[in-house]
Amino acid sequence: MGSPCHFALFELQPSFRLDLEQLAVRYRELARQVHPDRFADASERDQRLALEQSASLNEAYRVLKNAPQRARYLLALSGPELPLEVTVQDPGFLMQQMHWREELEDLQGSANVSGVATFKRRLKVAQDELNESFAVCWDDPLRREEAERLMRRMQFLDKLSHEVRQLEERLDD
């Protein structure tokens, strides 16, 4: 990685457990310092640098505030780059995915608002449990495979959670 580590930009040690409110405050402070408008009268080079710094900061913040992306980033820092899509060698979780998908399709079909809220709460509990499991094992080289498996599960739940939010918006209309 040619650019500075995302954590270093925020003066943080690489860690899965982050105080997201503190991260947001630090992001806003740094964003003000490098905002391209502050360099309107600067040289072309300084304007370009400000734009690059602003883009790097935005990217770092986007990755660090999202648990699955932060997990993937931490694993990438500590080992070989991970392929984006890997067939999950995880039959139990594959069954769970199919079950969640069917349940979400049923909720879409029935337009059941309270059912969607319940589903969303269960999903949040599952995400919190995965986040906690990942936090415990990500920096242990002997548990790397487990950490990668957990990260992939986190990515799936994140995607599912996004679909649930879209469904909620449609039902609210």
UniProtKB/TrEMBL annotation:
GO terms for molecular function: ATPase activator activity; protein-folding chaperone binding. GO terms for biological process: [2Fe-2S] cluster assembly; protein complex oligomerization; protein folding. Residues 5-77 form the J domain. The keyword Chaperone applies. Signal peptide: none annotated. One of its GO terms (cellular component) is iron-sulfur cluster transfer complex. SMART domains: DnaJ (SM00271). It holds the Pfam family DnaJ. Keywords: Chaperone. NCBIfam families: hscB, PRK00294.1. Interacts with HscA and stimulates its ATPase activity. HAMAP family: HscB (MF_00682). Belongs to the HscB family. Co-chaperone involved in the maturation of iron-sulfur cluster-containing proteins. Seems to help targeting proteins to be folded toward HscA. This is Co-chaperone protein HscB homolog. It comes from Pseudomonas taeanensis MS-3. The lineage of its organism: Bacteria, Pseudomonadati, Pseudomonadota, Gammaproteobacteria, Pseudomonadales.
